[in-house]
Amino acid sequence: MRTLADIAQQCARETDRFFQGQSYDPQHCFELFQRAILEREQSAWELIHAQYQSLVAGWVRQHSGLEASGEEVQYFVNRAFEKIWVALTPDKFSRFSELKSLLGYLKMCVHSAIIDHGRSTDRVSRYATVDEPDIDSKTQHPTVEDQTLDRMYRQSLWEWILARLHDEKERLVIQSTYVQALKPRQIYDQFQVLFDEVDEVYRIKQNVLARLRRDPEFRKLLGEYE
């Protein structure tokens, strides 16, 4: 059995070949993930972090939500690796048959980390900055209480929707569409490694919306009672 150091060195060499546009063998890097996930070797995780940190940092810098987050690039690099470490259990690893799909999932974790941070920060700031009502305001204007209840309703509805998404692809498409206001073509262009074609993005979006429309509880949340 090859040593972990040998696998990591070969992975690094093959990765360099890839970025130089040369033919390469991704199996060595895939094996590094196998050692980390299936055999739960902490040292393998550390080698993966060292190998792909610069790649993940590049994805973070390219993300449209980075500037508004107010966080450093390294913050989201760490959050993305934390997400994949938690999510990729030995049972779930069987869903990944190649390195490309693993790196696609890691890129999805970058997106998820930035979006989750944005939602959390926005939620805190909105509730922490509720102004006192203006005694001179006109009575037809919504009250602070009304505005707060409306925000609470929208947040609860959003969390309800997220809890019913089936996988990370659905989460990516729905968050990109309704949080970042991206069109399917833009989502595909940004995450081509995850989707076979732009039509897949359209299908995922339409399937989620159709599923929600059929859900009686969702209709009740929208006030559409039978």
What keyword list fits this structure?
226 residues, 71% helix, 0% strand, mainly alpha, globular
What would you say this structure looks like, in words?
There is one protein chain. This protein is mainly α and 226 residues long. Helix content is 71%, strand content 0%. Helix 3 (42-62) crosses helix 5 and helix 9 crosses helix 11 (198-213). The protein is globular. The chain starts with a helix and ends in a 5-residue tail after the last helix. Mean pLDDT is 77; it is low at 122-150.
Annotate the secondary structure layout.
Layout: H1 4-19, H2 27-37, H3 42-62, H4 66-69, H5 73-87, H6 90-93, H7 99-128, H8 144-163, H9 168-178, H10 184-190, H11 198-213, H12 216-221
Helix pairs in contact: 1-2, 1-3, 2-3, 3-5, 5-7, 7-9, 9-11, 10-11
